[in-house]
């Protein structure tokens, strides 16, 4: 039994308390393979031994939920300043075999090209999975994953969160590939590009792609200053 499992069991059984944990759904976008992936770790709780689970931990007495989510993400991945959003709590009385454990779910967005999996840092076996290949997970983590994926799909349409998963300079096709991957649907190219340009948030650069086998496409950047101004004026981002 792992140290974290022992710690959780002691907290619940000896102190007769409800434990509060934070679980992070770490989404990674693989631009090369055009896949949305999820980072999972091997579970060490006896009832789910060897199954895959989300990255999580107990909340500390002196931290906020957001502090805990950032701590867990940094400890498990070594990354700071990534997009991180609270989704909801999961509190079914039977969701954890060791006792009464309520968890707050967050999701994070990572460009896989920016992240090197560090097994020693994780201290547990870890692996990226294509989100469509995951059939079973420990605890209620499959349900948490599905809820967070749905939230990500909603956010992608109403906030520019997807641009954090792209290179600083990107093509219109790269944006469409990302949206189709996360939304799991094919988008009409003409319609999608019209909506993009109507937002007025893309800066067209005097640069084109390099080292590509096809005809090089124009590069763009996202204008975050203009987006901030748009929000201030009460205008909505919608794709």
CATH-defined topology of the largest domain = Nucleoside Triphosphate Pyrophosphohydrolase
| Number of β-strand runs | 9
Could you estimate the helical fraction of the residues in percent?
A: 25-40%
Task: Report the major sheet.
Answer: 7 strands, mixed
Label the overall shape: elongated
The CATH class label of the largest domain is Alpha Beta
Q: What number is the mean pLDDT? A: 88
- Percentage of residues in DSSP E strands: 25-35%
C-alpha termini separation: 47 Å
* CATH level 4 superfamily of the largest domain: Nucleoside Triphosphate Pyrophosphohydrolase
Q: Structural class of the secondary structure composition?
A: alpha+beta
Total of DSSP H or I helical runs spanning 4+ residues: 7
Structural features, described:
The chain has 239 residues and is an alpha+beta fold. It folds into two domains: 3-156, Alpha-Beta Complex (Nucleoside Triphosphate Pyrophosphohydrolase), CATH 3.90.79.10; 166-232, Winged helix-like DNA-binding domain superfamily/Winged helix DNA-binding domain (Arc Repressor Mutant, subunit A), CATH 1.10.10.10. Helices cover 33% and strands 26% of the residues. The protein has seven helices and nine strands, in the order αββββαββαβαααββα. It has helices spanning 3-15, 65-77, 119-122, 141-158, 172-183, 189-199, 224-232; strands at 19-30, 35-42, 52-53, 55-58, 83-90, 101-111, 126-130, 202-208, 218-222. Strands 1, 2, 3, 4, 5, 6 and 7 form a seven-stranded mixed beta sheet that branches. A hairpin with a 4-residue loop joins strand 1 and strand 2. The longest helix is centred in the middle third of the chain and has 18 residues, at 141-158. The protein is elongated, with a radius of gyration of 20 Å. The protein starts with a helix and ends in a 7-residue tail after the last helix. 25% of the residues are buried.
